[in-house]
TrEMBL record:
SUPFAM superfamilies referenced in this protein's UniProt entry, alphabetically: P-loop containing nucleoside triphosphate hydrolases
Species whose genome carries this gene: Carboxydichorda subterranea
Lineage, uppermost ranks: Bacteria, Bacillati, Bacillota, Limnochordia, Limnochordales
Identification of the protein by name: GTPase
Listed Pfam families: MMR_HSR1
All copies of domain G, residue ranges: 65-168
Amino acid sequence: MPAQPSAAPAVAAVVGRQGVGKTLFVLRFAQWCGMSRLLVSSGSRASGDEAWVELDPADAVSRLVGSQGPTTRQLQHLEVQWRHAKRWVRIRLSDTVGLTDGIHPDPQLRQAMAESLGAVLESPVVLHVLDGAEVARRPQRLLDEDDMDFQLARYGERRRGYAVIVNKLDLPGGKRGLDAVRQAWPRRIVLGTSAVEGWGFARVRRFVERFV
């Protein structure tokens, strides 16, 4: 890992439903940016209970990503940096808890979701992650005003630093989901990725560089 620049990191919130691949996206993006060791935290700086742990990328995936969700039960953060032209870009990626429609029955997750939405409101960059394969199965919900993703997209339309990340394009139907999002939400920036296969990150990084 290169020496830390002195400036405080900018913040980018990664938000979306449970199971869309937010945590794997964050970890693979950091690795793609050249981070050989990952500093991951959980807890809150404001409350003083934030704890950092340094992980090898493979260990981070093993510990933080699971097939039985929700795996992320509290807001966690990852610091990433790279060289851009003559300056360092340093960001703090906020890996938020997966959101749901309606009120979740688990009080711990309800609190974590509220903290996650707070992180979205405070972040200059918001990356809204969708599961492309799932969108392809139910494209009609992109225009459902009661749907959580529609509400996030409507909020993002008023934000300069907002982009939609259609993930899981490696799965059958994923690219059809990407096309559906671009058609349904034409005024948003929509980028496609596969966190599993590790591609699509160059455009994401260029987008982030515009706002930090």
